Amino acid sequence: MAEMKRHDNRLGLWGWLGGGRWGVERHAYILHRLTGLAILLYFLMHIVVTSLRASGKYMWIEGHVLHQPVFRFGEYLVFAAFAYHAFNGIRLVLVELGLAVGKPIEPIYPYKTSLNVQRPLLISMMVLAGIFLLLGSFEFLGVGK
Amino acid sequence: MRETKYWTWHMTAGVVILFLLGLHMLIMHVGGVSTSFAPYSGEATSKANSLFRDSKLFFTVTYIFLLGIALYHGLYGLRTILFELTLKPVVEKSITFVLTITGLGLFVLGTWAAIATHAIALSGARG
């Protein structure tokens, strides 16, 4: 038996950036990773910035550098990334636990796919993420103040 | 087997973060829902409202808890993504080492800040 080489199936970045023909769930997976990386980058900076309050520096309040519109908009993007990542994450956990993929059935033509069960879940989660995002948008846009 | 355990912790951490970070987002950015945690006028992120929350032990404890599990969830997620690029074992070990040190360092910083501001907020409330 030939020895398996470690790099035989190496796809590099395209391995997880390329959607291929896997449908909307695969694109949801890519977006989940991108939003996760964006949230992580923000979170690491957020820890440092908020820790400065221990020395009396509140850099995010009115009149300070992080209260400028460009940072407020960036914060809104992070909020949107969180809304997506959180609700898509619920879907992923349900699928991982086998709760949203339907029961195993005989492969009889016309074949049914578990996507028939998964797709409504994806749509439901995106609707909930949209509602959460809308509520946050009112706050960011200052509606009602 | 060990990686399965780490992955299970990653998912569990995600569910816990959903509630804690969801609460954090509701307080900070969906202020119309509740003003219980931001009683002073102005934004929920104002200095007065921040000090109000820092004076509550509940917030200090949950900040530290959220900090720890969010760092684990985020840095383990980054490690998973990087490992899918099929790296050399020595590079994988280096990445694990760097991410562990980064996570521990930020956890110590955030924990110190949460405890220090709790003490500051309490002394301010008394004084």
Question: What features would you highlight for this structure?
Answer:
heterodimer; A: 145 residues; mainly alpha; 3 helical TM bundles of succinate and fumarate reductases; 0% strand; elongated; B: 127 residues; 4 helices
Textual characterization of the structure:
The complex is a heterodimer of chains A (145) and B (127). By secondary structure, chain A is mainly alpha-helical. Chain A has one domain (23-141): 3 helical TM bundles of succinate and fumarate reductases, CATH 1.20.1300.10. Chain A contains 4 helices and no strands. Chain A is elongated, with a radius of gyration of 21 Å. The mean pLDDT of chain A is 82. With 127 residues, chain B is mostly helical. Chain B has one domain (2-126): Fumarate reductase/succinate dehydrogenase, transmembrane subunit (3 helical TM bundles of succinate and fumarate reductases, Up-down Bundle), CATH 1.20.1300.10. Chain B contains 4 helices and no strands. In chain B, helix 1 (2-29) crosses helix 3 and helix 3 (57-83) packs antiparallel against helix 4. The radius of gyration of chain B is 18 Å and the shape is elongated. The model of chain B has no long low-confidence stretch (mean pLDDT 87). At the A-B interface, helix 2, helix 3 and helix 4 of A face helix 1, helix 2, helix 3 and helix 4 of B.
CATH class placement of chain B = Mainly Alpha
User: Biggest interface: chains and residue counts?
Assistant: A-B, 40 and 39 residues
CATH-defined topology of chain B: 3 helical TM bundles of succinate and fumarate reductases
Roughly how many Å apart are the termini of chain A?
A: 72 Å
Assembly type of the chains comes to heterodimer
Give the CATH architecture of chain A.
Answer: Up-down Bundle
